Amino acid sequence: MDASTPDTDWTALLAAREGARPAGALAPLFAPILAPPAAADGCRVIGRLAQTLDGRIATASGSSQWIGGPGDILHTHRLRALCHAVVVGAGTVRHDDPRLTTREVPGPDPVRVVIDTDRHLSADFRIFRDGPPTLLACANDTPGPDTHGTAEVLRLPREATGGIAPVALLRALAARGLTRIFVEGGGLTVSRFLAAGCLDHLHVTVAPVLLGSGIPAFTLPEVARIADGLRFSWKVHEIPPDILLDIAVNRARPGGAP
Ligand SMILES: NC(=O)c1ccc[n+]([C@@H]2O[C@H](COP(=O)([O-])OP(=O)(O)OC[C@H]3O[C@@H](n4cnc5c(N)ncnc54)[C@H](OP(=O)(O)O)[C@@H]3O)[C@@H](O)[C@H]2O)c1
């Protein structure tokens, strides 16, 4: 799979987004994402990260553009176009000021969702100024108006640990008809969805780059033994010069067989 994949394959996949049977060269990678949701929260959820060989998604100062090559950027925009909503954490907005649109491929823009529990982000970021519909997910005890720039504020219960439960966010999105959800980053956000049993798929791009320092891809509760780590099986796709690891996640046992 690379940027030279014929447009007919992408057109076939966009038709599958609306219910046609997935067909063409892109179907093996993307058809599982288009399958109907099976989880109780009503959503099918894919997490994605681009990391270095040593598992970093950005430098320590937060610079991450670009760890992956053009094939990874294309892949990310395809995932945006196939999903109803794209979710990012506050750290990603703070560092990248992203637009989260589908500029690289024909296809609809997803609804954009930013998780910012205590509303620390200013409304000056691009995502809150213009572009497709945007939701700011915050805790229901966080003060402030019902809009944040052009974004609508979505209030959700605060967990005992201080954050917002991914499952509560997924239920709120499903109630709005947003059931195919792309968790685009950063590492803390994807990790929280994984740890909460709220991911069905993981796509991890690994680039042949070593940083030796930086922001980690995954941060999960500490384990004492190698056997206690989450162990997956994966399919490997070449997106030169990178590889894309396609992992089906079992929500009940994230490190177990799907
Ligand atoms: N290489 C890649 O694929 C990739 C992708 C995206 C971003 N990035 C880079 O990654 C860095 C940011 O990643 P990061 O891991 O530091 O941060 P992040 O995941 O973008 O954001 C983390 C913050 O989001 C909020 N958050 C996320 N999930 C939450 C939940 N369930 N409940 C409550 N709050 C939640 C929290 O903010 P509060 O505590 O303030 O509420 C948390 O501190 C940036 O440098 C960016 O450039 C890389």
What does this structure look like?
There is one protein chain. This protein is α/β, with parallel strands linked by helices and 258 residues long. The protein has a domain at 60-199: Dihydrofolate Reductase, subunit A (3-Layer(aba) Sandwich). 22% of the residues lie in helices and 24% in strands. Strand 11 and strand 12 form a beta hairpin. The chain is globular, with a radius of gyration of 18 Å. Residues 49-50, 57-58, 62, 64, 67, 88-92, 95-96, 115-118, 120, 163-164, 166, 185-189, 192, 215 line the site of NADP nicotinamide-adenine-dinucleotide phosphate.
Return the string of H and E elements. Answer: HHEEHEHEEEEHEHEEEE
- Unreliable runs: none
Rough outline:
globular
CATH fold description of the domain at 60-199: Dihydrofolate Reductase, subunit A
CATH classification, class level of the domain at 60-199: Alpha Beta
| Tally of DSSP β-strands | 12
Largest sheet: 10 strands, mixed
Nearest-integer average pLDDT:
95
Helical fraction equals 10-25%
* Cα gyration radius (Å): 18 Å
The CATH architecture designation of the domain at 60-199 is 3-Layer(aba) Sandwich
Element layout with pairings:
Layout: H1 7-17, H2 27-34, E1 44-51, E2 56-58, H3 70-82, E3 85-89, H4 90-96, E4 111-115, E5 134-139, E6 147-148, E7 151-156, H5 166-175, E8 180-185, H6 187-195, E9 201-206, E10 215-216, E11 235-239, E12 242-248
Parallel strand pairs: 1-8, 1-9, 3-4, 3-8, 4-5, 5-7
Antiparallel strand pairs: 2-10, 6-7, 9-12, 11-12
Helix pairs in contact: 1-2
Bound molecules: NADP nicotinamide-adenine-dinucleotide phosphate.
NADP nicotinamide-adenine-dinucleotide phosphate binds at residues 49-50, 57-58, 62, 64, 67, 88-92, 95-96, 115-118, 120, 163-164, 166, 185-189, 192, 215.
